[in-house]
Specification:
Layout (H helix, E strand, L loop, with lengths): L8 H13 L3 E9 L2 E8 L3 H13 L3 H4 L9 H12 L10 H15 L5 H20 L9 H10 L5 E6 L4 H11 L4 E7 L14 E5 L3 H5 L4 E4 L9 H4 L9 E5 L16 E4 L1 H7 L1 H6 L1 H24 L3
Parallel strand pairs: 3-4, 3-6, 4-5, 6-7, 7-8
Antiparallel strand pairs: 1-2
Helix pairs in contact: 4-6, 4-13, 5-6, 6-13, 7-8
Length: 318
């Protein structure tokens, strides 16, 4: 179900534009990450129902079905939720750094689209500032383990001098995965590069082998680990892959995309293992337990910051 709500940037802009056409909605921001799609909005009592209607239309999942899976917050609870999201408390990996950047990007995208006014401006600015404060004053991010670092660690576990093929190195997740891979000396890295992005700075790094995206199947044959993190579904299909597997060796496929990049039937191949986002959710649970003390401190900071925010919102008109 989740992949149906993983809207592209163009669809996100279109979605916000459609929301703003409704008389019941005055402001909106949409936040899409690998494991969440959230719509923040201001409006009349009819607004929530209209948002649900549009979500059903764009995801092609009936409202009656996804309503059982959704969470809905309003007023103060909605504000507190955003603060927790921005600071990484509500993330799959508690304290991860990527979510703050994604929150900023969502807010700036809404500003560019002119879908925010005073309320959402100050709410998002305050949430971002609070997240930075939490990262400075607590240990929440000091030992941050992101999905990207967990993926790199899985590759290292294969042992020896291994070959890793990274598909989608130019994206946000792919770039972070690449940085983590480069911190390990025992890894030989090959990355794909699309023709329309020839200026990607990694291409100048002599320690990294850069190939054209169209050659990805050819290099899978020599790879011990294949990590895919693109925004294009079905980057690797079983039918095409079988044409190039000319070596009997174990291969680890890591799919960090939503919707998935890699055909799930690949896991049925001999000597092939496929892991995805849900695997890393379980892996991160033990890491999250170690951070719970920092979460308590972070929640105290959020309580103080949201109290200050409420006063500013209430007194704005005066």
């Amino acid at each position: 179900m989740r992949k149906n709500f993983a809207f592209s940037l163009d669809i996100q802009r279109e979605f916000m534009s459609e929301l703003m056409k409704a008389k019941c909605i005055s402001q909106c921001v949409i936040l899409c990450t690998c494991n969440r799609t959230e719509v923040y909005f201001c409006g009349s009592p009819a607004a929530p129902e209209y948002v649900d209607k549009l979500l059903a239309e764009y995801s092609k999942i009936p409202k009656e079905i996804f309503s059982a899976k959704k969470r809905f917050y309003q007023e103060e609870k909605a504000i507190i939720h955003l603060f927790k999201v921005a600071s990484g408390i509500d993330s799959m990996v508690i304290g991860e750094d990527e979510i703050l950047g994604q929150t900023k990007k969502a807010y700036h995208s809404a500003k560019e689209a002119d879908t925010v006014s005073h309320e959402l401006n100050i709410i998002f600015q305050s949430a971002i500032a609070c997240a930075k404060k939490i990262k400075t004053e607590t240990a929440l991010s000091k030992t941050s383990v992101s999905i990207a670092s967990l993926a790199a660690n899985e590759a290292v576990k294969l042992g020896g001098n291994i070959n890793v093929l990274l598909i989608g190195a130019t994206g946000k997740t792919g770039t972070t995965v690449l940085k983590n891979l480069m911190s390990h000396k025992s890894i030989n890295i090959t990355v794909t590069l699309r023709e329309h992005n020839p200026d990607f700075k990694i291409a100048a790094n002599p320690s990294i082998n850069v190939i054209n995206y169209s050659q990805r199947y050819k290099y899978i044959s020599d790879a011990d680990c294949i990590i895919s993190a693109t925004s294009s579904p079905h980057t690797i299909t079983l039918c095409e892959l079988q044409k190039y597997l000319n070596k009997n060796k174990k291969r680890l496929f890591i799919d960090l995309a939503v919707p998935p990049d890699i055909d799930s039937s690949i896991s049925y191949l001999n000597d092939a293992e496929l892991i995805g986002i849900d695997y890393f959710e379980k892996l991160s649970e033990s890491n999250n337990i170690l951070k719970m003390n920092s979460v308590d401190t972070a929640c105290e900071i959020i309580a103080k910051e949201t109290d200050t925010l409420k006063k500013e919102l209430y007194f704005h008109n005066f």
